[in-house]
Fold:
Amino acid sequence: MAQDLRINRTDTINLSLKPTFYGTIKTGLGYYSYKEPNVMSITGPMYVVSAIGGLKLNPLIKTDATLYYSRDLGRNTYDGGIMLNDGSILPHQSLSSDWYVGGKYRAGLIIGNGIDEWLVLYLGLGYRYLHNQIHGSGAYLREQTYLYMPMGGQVKVWLFDKVRLNLDVEFRALLLGNNISHFKDLGYDNNLHFIQNSGSGTRVTLGAEVFITRKSSILVEGFLDYWNIGQSSKEKLYEKGISKGSYIEPVNKTLFYGLQVGYSF
Structure:
């Protein structure tokens, strides 16, 4: 007979403060796509690693922090154009080096039976930094940061004694975006600092975990990250003190989806 690794459901619910640590480490592969419609695109495979550490304060409240890092595998392709010194745009295809790092803090309300977590509703604060370097003549470095508010829910359903299905749906409200285009790399007087204050994102994960003990498990899940960011502020570009016109960071969309495995404890 299979052993039920779940905690006894008949235990009395105790709401007193008794912090319990939990954590998860994950790694995976995905396909990355960044697009500025009718302007340019960057696509290619990327790997991702992440770690979560948190405290379950009592059967009703939990809080955690997530750190993540993703990098290209040397095969990301830029398809768009590069700016020449006279301000004209030349069609261009080349390799693109991309990596991003970020983190988020969340506080959650647990809905369950005091032992199992059927539903967790959470709210938090997140940060994401992207580093993009296109290669080739006329290319320049781009840095992009997002400060955002994640809010969402986690659903956990037991399929068998040792197997649980997990669904996490997260909406991300952009609080502030900042983009630095390093035009000094091309010989201009200044870099362009764009402000992006409209946009949102979504993250969805769906997977299953197999429990080894009552607390530790191996998990496999699919993930999808999506950002839709609005047009930025206008900024002026100068060369030798002479204005070369005003520029914007156009509407852009980022999609990253794939598969990852992990260990929870």
User: Anything to note?
Assistant: The domain at 20-264 is CATH 2.40.128.100 (Lipocalin).
